[in-house]
Design a protein that fits this description.
This is Rab3GAP regulatory subunit C-terminal domain-containing protein. Residues 1-80 form the Rab3GAP regulatory subunit C-terminal domain. InterPro entries: RAB3GAP2_C (IPR029257). The chain has 4 helices and no strands. It is elongated. By secondary structure, the protein is mostly helical.
């Protein structure tokens, strides 16, 4: 829906906050980022998000979704890295 209603989404300032919350929740679900996943590679889940955005005809919404997704991914990676470091100590 995000990518198919570009104009409506881009006019709604709360839409980005809702997208970020949604991607954060999805990222926290089991299977989105696995414990065994190498932090130096792109997770399969995020690769799918990237593919959907790159194939969208609505470039503005896709770019915004990609930026929000990148922010969420960084947060998840940092959280997972900190968790691994604390387990090693």
């Amino acid at each position: 829906m995000w990518l198919s209603r570009e104009r409506a989404v881009l006019r709604d300032p709360e839409a980005v906050s809702r997208l970020r919350a949604l991607l954060t929740e999805l990222s926290c679900m089991r299977g989105a980022v696995e414990e065994s996943w190498d932090l130096q590679t792109v997770s399969p889940w995020w690769q799918q998000v990237r593919t959907v955005c790159s194939q969208s005809e609505n470039s503005g919404a896709a770019l915004l979704a990609g930026l929000v997704g990148q922010s969420v991914a960084k947060k998840c990676i940092n959280s997972l890295a900190q968790k691994k470091v604390s387990l090693q100590l």
